[in-house]
Every structure is written in structure tokens, then in C-alpha cells.
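Figure 2 data, in text form.
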Amino acid sequence: MNRKFSILLALLAAITLAVSFSKCKKDESCKVRIICRQSLTGVDTGAVIPQCEVEIGKDSYASYAHVTGVANASGVFEYTFKLEALLDVKANAEIREPVTDSTFANFPYEGVGQVKLIPGETVEKTILLLKQQ
């Protein structure tokens, strides 16, 4: 009886140790999705801006909190950071618009905002780009 109790106790201890050291590892990465849209007077037109230049963070930030890139054809830029942070977002683009019935010109557009990265989540932020004078 004493031997059975010892074996049972050892088996329970082994199971307890196995369960406590085999916890699932949570995804702690911070994903961000920036959507670039054209704006007229601060109102979202719904028109996405493809190939928009996007900067998250600033040059003076640590390298792990700063990234630049280009939005895809749907006006979306995605990136995964390793750490939680509150970061500035800046987007720039040149949009070709008609000047007269037969001539076109490129006009600069810019938008800014902030995004709070949350571990284990994908944070989506829409940046409205306004024509610069």
C-alpha cells in the first residue's frame, strides 16, 4: 500500500510539473495596419491612395520603433513590431489631378496620426491625406 501511494504521488508530481512548464506561448507581437485614404477638407472620400509612403515612428526613435515603407495597391501598409508602443504615423503621396481639361499635374498630399500598438493584436489606423498648399 505504501509503495502504491509513493508511485501515485510521484506520478502526480510529474504530471503537475509537465503541465506547469508546458503552457502555451502567447503571441506578444504588435501588428499594425495603416490604411491611406484621400481627404477633401478633412472628410474621408473613401478613395484609397495606393503606393503611399508611410513612416511609423521617427528617425530619432530606436530602430525597433521606427519603420518606413510603401502601401500596397489597396492603400494598406502592414508591419509587425516586437514591443508595445505609442507611435506617430506620417503618410505622403503625390496624386495626379486635372488642372485644365487637357493638362494634369502632381499635387502633394500628407496625413499624420498616432497608433497605439497592443501585444497580440492587430491595430488598424486610417490616415486621411490632405492636399498640401
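Caption note: The chain has one helix and eight strands.
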